[in-house]
Amino acid sequence: MIDKMNKNIKNIIKNLILKVLPPKQYRLFLYQYHKILGHLDREMYFINKFTNKNRTAIDAGANTGMYTVYLTKYFNNVYSFEPVPSLADDLAASKIKNNFVYNIGLAEENSKRELKIPYDNITGEPLYAWAYFNVEHIERSFLKKESIIVGCRTLDSYHFNDVDFIKIDVEGYELNVLIGAKDTINKDKPVLLIEVPSGRKDRNNILNYLNNMGYCGYFISD
């Protein structure tokens, strides 16, 4: 009950702020809010230390756009991919400089796929950050899930040039994204930041795939 009340209060505050601030200012406010509270991923602050060229960055699984906002501070062009329509629309409405938003999921081939959006068991709210293609990835038991059909494309099909950095946070679909980005990775050798929790069964498959492409990995643990 307390969790539900807290989330309802947060939603009320969010809606009030949205009425006052334009989309871009709201996105920047949200970024600063999470930064002040220490909610941003700490690996975010290592990005500019590992990239010596800041031409093009890819944000695969952009969600609310926190990485996107950060990346636009350092890269000339940031391409954000988000398959959840409402999240992609919100980010696009922010009209952040040098940011291009695609309401598309990245995968190993161009196709239409089923994206599942789970709902919070307590509040009944959609958990867009947990949206997934890979059924095996989600271990929690959600009482309600919504399925939508979304478009997917390979990163290679966009023929981006000078890609210096790729961030991938796609809830169990990391290897699929990497396979679809093989040519881009081989061509530009970008720095890769991939979220892969330690308990994941396919973790070694991802590491082996990257090793075969000439990459060596480093882990940042919580």
From TrEMBL:
- Methyltransferase FkbM domain location: 59-215
One Pfam family, short name: Methyltransf_21
Q: Which NCBIfam families match?
A: fkbM_fam
Q: What is this protein called?
A: Methyltransferase FkbM domain-containing protein
